[in-house]
Design brief:
By secondary structure, the protein is α/β, with parallel strands linked by helices. 42% of the residues lie in helices and 15% in strands. The protein contains nine helices and nine strands. Helix 4 links the parallel strand 4 and strand 5. The two termini are 30 Å apart.
Amino acid sequence: PKRFNLTGNAIPTALTPLDELAKETRGGQAVYVKREDELGCELTGNKCRKLEYLLQHALDRRSTVVITCGSLQSNHCRATAVAARRAGLDCHLVLRGAPPADGDVADGNFFLMQMARPKFTFVAESEWVARRDAVMEELAAAYRAQAPAGAHRPYVIPEGGSCGIGAWAYVDVMHELVDRHTHKCMASTVVTAVGSGGTLAGLVIGKQLLKLDGVRVVGVAVCDDTAHFTVAVKRVVDDFNRHFGTAFTARAGEDYEITDAYVAAPVSNAHSATQYYEALWWIQRLAHLEGTYLE
């Protein structure tokens, strides 16, 4: 499918060796990082890749406003607010939590969202999982009903841009990892963080599309748990299949692996807490060894 170019000539992103880190791995295995951060701080890596496909789809449908959701500090919502303006579209963000009190100073991503001047709707933390999708659909219906008829044509983007169309972005990334001369993947294992499932789903599809049977695709959950993301990844792959008439699978343990061992856990859970603090130690260690920062 076509994509709306948000990234100029920055794609494909660099594949950079982490030589100092590699010395600390078992057997000194080579470690590389895909520099998705080079796509721009206001848009951010995997978010803008997905948005290129999603915004083009919105434009092809002659949409006038995009609606999406996330937390007050959501990278995806910040990127959508900025990208929508670049595409000439209005934006309405459904955010988890209470609106800032009068007099509070916005910071971080919420401050950057405000600068792009989207509309906001807030949903209480306690209602988020049950209500977020319904709220977006209600907003879409309200836009469609506004006079004059047809003046507003909404386009709903799921949380994180995690849907079949957005997944194309990381099919592209798997293609970027294939050596043009040998037609083999330059990595034996591809690891990604998992926050909504779309990036992992795209890598799983790309692995099958490019017949990279020997490549491990591993997701590391940053929230929720393995069971949640097993369902989420399958949902995105199924949506891809519906859109494009394909029959890709999403079998945890076969097509990909996922772990929730590093999700922030209560201190009372000694094992999970140890894993979590180990992850923080490695983030700091990587910055010290390579001058490379992970979020």
